[in-house]
Amino acid sequence: MTGKLALKTGGFNEMNCKHTALLAVMTALCVGIQLTPRPPNVETTSLISFLVGFLFGAGFGALVGALTMFINGFFSSWGFAGIIMPFQMAGMALIGFTGGFYRKILGGNPNNVASPTKVLRLEVSFLAAFLTLIYDVITNVGWALPSGVPIIVALIQGAWFTAIHIASNVAFFGSAFFILVRIVSKLLGEGLWSSQKEAS
Amino acid sequence: MEFSKRSLVIFGLGWLTSIALVGLIAGYYYIEYQNLLAKLEEYKGQVMRVNICINYEGWNGTIVWHNGTLVLAGCDLLSATKRVAVVNYTYWQSMQASFVDAINNIWNNGTHYWMWYRWTNNGWDYGPVGADRYILSPNETVMWRYEKPQY
To answer: What is the DSSP letter of B44?
Structure first.
């Protein structure tokens, strides 16, 4: 062993100890914040899942998102999620997956992320808005179908919750995403783009 | 400033999101409005509308109308006024009626008082009883005037 703990995880990259530890910390952070009492629909799970996807690959992002919502389904301060849980997992997995996908389409331009331009920040914010809307549509469908409520009515009834969710995520992503990318990359002690080979 | 194709696609998604969100919020208020109309229909006969004027003639001359104020059927003038203004009043046991001391923080003083009138075919008629003793009729028009009493 040379300090590198190689993990073969199917389609994922090889990971060393640092990566593994950091991923575990971020997952724990994600779950911890998710379970903390907070205003309804203000959450950082989307941001962290997206970040994990961005840094460790789409698969990991999806996994962290889905697992966080799975645990949240049982221990949330709002009570047991019930039938809506698989939909929450699917929605959050999509956000994590998109984090990895976004990095892939960004291509190999480390300067963009080291000092993100306004355009990149805007991109991430707009993407957050869209993904949050999709997440809310998925979870509302998950509630409406078994309740027998028309989907459009469910969406309309939750319009203000959706608005709060989108606004908070736009603010979190726009202000914190690239800062977190820089911090995590420094912690990893790697160049911004070397922790995921597929990104280049 | 030139945007890449990627940026344009993402901005497009954001634009779609905002359109969808505005649509949902508009839908929310439309449904709320419909619910209120339905509730109003349900309570038809239990509620009525009245027109209340507050005339600050003896203070700064402002006249404020509260047309179509929704009140319960059989509502008295004092209760109706409290729906549209902050009212201070004193109940006089000897008169078995309430006397309005102030409306919207404009208080009776030695010379000016709040008096009330009702609109009739002959114009404004001086209110015959205390405001809490007067039961309003549907679509009735009443006025509070801050004035030097005629008496």
So the answer is: B
Distance of CA A186 to the CA centre of its chain: 20
Domain count, chain B: 2
Interface probe with B: pick from A98, A101, A119, most Cβ of B within 10 Å: A119
Q: Which long-range contacts (CB under 8 A, 24 or more apart) does B27-36 make?
A: B27/A152, B27/A155, B27/A156, B27/A159, B28/A156, B28/A157, B28/A159, B28/A160, B31/A153, B31/A156, B31/A157
B20 contacts on A by Cβ (under 8 Å): 133
- Specify whether B23 is located in the same domain as B95: no
Domain coverage including residue B17: 1-42
d(C-alpha A133, C-alpha B73), whole Å: 45
Report A:109-148 residues touching B (Cβ under 8 A). 119, 122-123, 125-127, 129-130, 132-133
Q: What is the ipTM of this complex?
A: 0.77
Size of interface A-B (CB pairs under 8 A): 57
List the pLDDT tens digit at each of the 200 positions of chain A. Answer: 333 333 434 344 556 777 778 778 888 888 888 788 888 888 899 999 999 999 888 998 999 999 888 888 887 777 777 888 999 999 999 999 999 999 988 876 544 566 677 888 899 999 999 999 999 999 999 999 988 899 999 999 999 999 999 999 999 999 999 999 888 888 877 665 554 444 33
Which pTM was predicted?
A: 0.69
CATH number of the domain that B72 lies in?
2.170.130.30
CATH number at residue A145: 1.10.1760
Nearest to B17 among A106, A130, A160 (CB): A130
